[in-house]
Amino acid sequence: MKRTNRLLIISAALVSLALGACNKDLNLQPPSNTVVGNGGQGTAGSYIKDAATSEAALASCYAFFRSNAAEYYVLDYFNIGDAQSDNAYAGADNAAGFEVDEFRILSTNSWVARDWSYLYNQITACNSVIVNVPKVTDAALTATRKAQIVAEAQFIRARAYFDLVRLFGDVPLVLEELPTITADNLAEIYPLLYPARASKDSVYNQITNDLKSAVEAVPVSAVNKGFVTKGAVYTLLAKIAATRKPINWPEVQSYTDQVIALGYSLLPVYDQLWDGAHENSAEAIFELNFDGWETGGNWGTSMFLGTDWKKFCNPSNDLMRAYKEANDSIRYRSTITFANVTGKWGDARLSLDSFPFFYKMRKTDASQNIIMYRLADVLLLKAEALNEQGNVSGANDIVTQIRQRVKLNPLNITDQAAMRLAIERERRLELAFEGQRWYDLVRTDRAIPVMQAVTDGKGVNLGYHLTEQSLLWPIPQGEMDQNANLEQNTGY
């Protein structure tokens, strides 16, 4: 819809209000919930009045990890981070997934639209907490707990924005709530209802400020790793520092050191991370907790594992070859499993008599936790920071520590460029099917050369054609149609 046409509709609404409906509110909120405002009366968070409703509002922010945006966190998170990379093929039979996998994304792609919406809806829930909880005067809500509730919401909002800015680049920066829309304030509300995209720098500044504020109020530990702690905040700060250009490597090292100082430790056996018997372990920093279907179960396992129908995110020949070339049998067995699917479906790239499935999610009763941040990831980020600052030996020591757990020999690399590639490879083998690989390739400027060199099981190049433009997703067409202030990413 063109801006002029929408203004005509709004004008007509104003006339209607003037003719006798002045006391009724207008609902002009776009589906993406990309709205801002001054936190006035009648907002979505107006129900937050006391300690109980403050806690309930924060719970709604966490609920997006398990139910309200579960499709993003238990499915698309891995399709983006692994199937979009050289770790996996899209699998299944979804055309939108094939577009993502093969870098043929259209602005009408349904996955693009839903992920934009899921993340902004979570941000909207967080905004309600951040805007309204500080106003609560209920004596049952202590100042310490009030600050902690706000801080946890700030982390969740920052985490969602980090995904948005990495996927789309410049995005609308929605930080508050929209007041009830009436005839009197509609003209004022219009630019807030339809915001333009903010620069990546503005978004990064905001999420960094949110996290620096949050880390002061969140606890060192919680009842389980599904709640925000200082370790989670410092981990996200480290990831942001390792992504935002120009990269500040001393800052990356500082944040990773602050995580390490909190006492996390690697599990002695790699498979314990995924066997379901060691959840919320000493290695986990932030982990989505699932108990079963009644509390928003993790249905993602059945999207990736099983022979009843062809699954999403099938491990690639390139990834399997990488494990074999590294003689990395321990992580290989924990990450990938095989089954004979002959007669069940076809596949042009993978063997049907030994078809690969990702195996880090393997419990089928909806109770499989998802580890989003863990110590091995942080240690390898620190190794990057050390290497980029010229401390190749220190980086080699960390990589050796990670490799020792899976019975691999030290690398003893002394060349910085060689160590850079070694860390890249180690992160891939350690973190496969954890939603990390694509973002790693992009932030290190390796996505284009790596993806254009990917071959199939016979060594034939797969013909991925990437440009700088294809490293970002398009703004969803539905958002463009509703908001004339949005500009599309180049190339779409």
UniProtKB/TrEMBL annotation:
Record keyword Signal present: yes
Q: Show the InterPro entries listed in the entry.
A: SusD-like_N, SusD_RagB_dom, TPR-like_helical_dom_sf
A Pfam family of the record is SusD_RagB
Among PROSITE patterns, the record links this protein to: PROKAR_LIPOPROTEIN
Give the source species: Chitinophaga ginsengisoli
Tell me if Phosphoprotein is a UniProt keyword of this record. Answer: no
Task: Provide the protein name.
Answer: Putative outer membrane starch-binding protein
Mind telling me which GO cellular component terms the entry cites? cell outer membrane
Any idea where the RagB/SusD domain is? 362-492
Could you list this entry's UniProt keywords, alphabetically sorted. Answer: Cell outer membrane, Membrane, Signal
Family per record: Belongs to the SusD family.
Which branch of life, at top level? Bacteria
Give the signal peptide range: 1-23
The record's subcellular locations are: Cell outer membrane
Give residue ranges for domain SusD-like N-terminal: 55-240
